[in-house]
Amino acid sequence: MKRLIPLKKYSLYIIAGLMIMVTIILFFLVGIGQSSTEPSVLKENKETQVTLEKQENEGNEPSSIVVEVKGAVRKPGVYVFQSDARVEEAIKRAGGFTSKADTFEINQAAKLEDSMMIYVRKQGEADRQTQTATTDTSSRNEKSQGVNVNQADATELQTINGIGPAKAEAIIAYREEHGEFQQIEDLRNIPGFGDKTVERLKSQLTVK
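Request: output the structure for the sequence above.
Response:
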C-alpha cells in the first residue's frame, strides 16, 4: 500500500506536466498562425493605399486647354496650355504686347479656360468702337422715328415707300412756300396725297 501512494502521486505530476506541455504547444501553434496572417493583411492594406494614392495623383494631373490670342500681340495664334495657366502666360507665349497695345482692360491674373479667346485692343480702338456704336444707335433711333418731312431732301424722302421723285419735289415745294408741316395730315394739302396715302405714310414720317 505504501508503494501505491508514491506511484499515484508521480502519475499526477506527469499528467500535470503533459497538460502544461500541450498548452504551451497550442499557444505556440496559434502564435504561428497569427504571425502568418498579419503580414498578408498588411500587404493588402499597403497595396490598397498605393492604388488609391495613384488614382488621386492621376485625378489631380492638369489637362490641356486650347486658347487663341489675337490683337495687339507680337505672335497672334492658337496655343496649348495647362488648365491652371493664367492670361499672363498666354500673352508671353504670343510674344508679349506690341507698343500700340491697350492693356488697361486685360486682367493678366485671370485663369485661362478651354476655347477662350484673348483679344488685345490697340490704343484708341475702344474709343472708336464707342463712337461707332453711338452713331449706329442714333441712326437706328432716327430711322425708327421716321423721316422728318420738314428737313429731309428729295433723296431721303424717296427712301419712303410710296414717295417717288414727283411727290418728293411736291413736298419740298409746299414746305418752301407754306413753311414747315405742323402735322403729317398737312400732306393732304398737296395734290396726289389722298387720305389713304397719308394714312399709309404716317408710320414712316415725322414733323419733328
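Helices lie at 4-60, 87-93, 125-145, 154-157, 165-178, 195-201.
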